[in-house]
Design brief:
Keywords: Exocytosis. InterPro entries: C2_dom, C2_domain_sf, UNC-13_domain. This protein is α+β, with helices and mostly antiparallel strands. The chain has two domains: 101 residues, Immunoglobulin-like, CATH 2.60.40; 36 residues. It contains three helices and four strands; from the N terminus they run ββαββαα. Strands 2-1-3-4 form a four-stranded antiparallel β-sheet. The longest helix is centred in the C-terminal third of the chain and has 17 residues. The protein is flat. It starts with 7 loop residues before the first strand and ends with a helix.
């Protein structure tokens, strides 16, 4: 931002879509003119414990910078492997107070020549692979 501040918000999404196909993306409120936003918000998702236990199931946090005139800017993304969330593997959790605060590093995706995305793109017969490549390519473009 020119003024040195951002207007961040976070998109929260369960992935992959073939596991969480009916789970909508949710988003936080926009925190105006800050570089250190605090999102003290709660969200509820209708997902099963079996979905969360599936291999590859993740929660994706995409941080965006709201722009009032132009397209919103991609700031970064972080992933949480759902099998690592307390309670998913069956242990008893006694409310939010029992959970530790976790810091997640924001990542900027970068295209790797002959990487996984290129391999998926070559699977022209696979509709799911093509849709995934299309979405990830858009994220890579915004990150560039």
């Amino acid at each position: 931002e020119e003024q040195g501040f951002s207007d961040p918000y976070v998109l929260i999404q369960f992935c992959p879509e073939h596991i969480f196909h009916d789970v909508p993306v949710q988003k936080t409120s926009i925190k105006k003119k800050t570089l250190n936003p605090v999102f003290d918000e709660s969200f509820e998702f209708n997902v099963s414990i079996d979905q969360c236990r599936q291999r590859g199931a993740v929660l994706v946090f995409t941080v965006m910078d709201h722009d009032y005139v132009f397209e919103n800017d991609f700031a970064g993304e972080a992933y949480v492997d759902l099998c690592n969330i307390p309670g998913v593997d069956g242990q008893d959790i006694s409310g939010f107070d029992a959970l530790a605060i976790t810091a997640l590093p924001l990542m900027q995706p970068q295209h790797k020549e002959n990487g996984a995305l290129d391999i998926l793109a070559s699977r022209e017969w696979d509709k799911d692979a093509q849709e995934f490549v299309k979405k990830r390519s858009k994220v890579e473009e915004k990150a560039a």
